[in-house]
């Protein structure tokens, strides 16, 4: 098997800047493929496809292995995670800044009789959302990615987390610690209430900033077998306190780590 050693982030972004190479990556995320099968969907010669693959190999996104006359390509999820971590960090910072600015511009500032802002205001916002994803792996494998502490740390906690621990059992607790964009201590703590292997997970969570709860949630994750894979349905009910977090931020973040789960499963696909 060959792979480019420690490619730079610039190489990764340059590799996926081309639509053909992005198409190759999207195919390989679904599982390993031979060079000839990769070339079929594209209106170009096998030689041209090989040139694109070489760019992906040099960037560290793809590895290849030749057995007999067949060369098989696979995604190396490490490079994807580095690019995603960088983009996620930038997106989080700017979304937070823009949403805070929008909140400041759209919300009248209450004041007391002296005209000073009233710093004792409190608010409660209750909302819910549901996300459905289909993964090219059976329910047992998708469920295992939630149950295994090392796997869960990779795709859920990510590289920005300072600490992650998982006690995956009814009554068990999962804790992730890090910092928010302002550098304040951030803790996400979940308690598992119901676990049916390969069928469902139910847990409640609290997001705390400097030990102060800002969002309380209840989440249900269901796993349904489909042809060649699993449909995952995540339903979450949230209570947002005092405007520290917004519903769209929570849903966007959940979408982000469900995409990371896709990459985690792709990295452990067996031929």
TrEMBL record:
InterPro entries assigned to the protein according to its UniProt record, in alphabetical order: ArsR-like_HTH (IPR011991), ASHA1/2-like_C (IPR013538), HTH_ArsR_DNA-bd_dom (IPR001845), START-like_dom_sf (IPR023393), WH-like_DNA-bd_sf (IPR036388), WH_DNA-bd_sf (IPR036390)
Segments forming a coiled coil: none
Membrane spanning stretches: none
Name the record gives this protein: HTH arsR-type domain-containing protein
Every HTH arsR-type domain range: 1-95
Similarity field: Belongs to the AHA1 family.
Molecular functions (GO terms): DNA-binding transcription factor activity
Superkingdom of the organism of origin: Bacteria
Entries under SUPFAM superfamilies matching the protein: Bet v1-like (SSF55961), Winged helix' DNA-binding domain (SSF46785)
A Pfam match: HTH_20
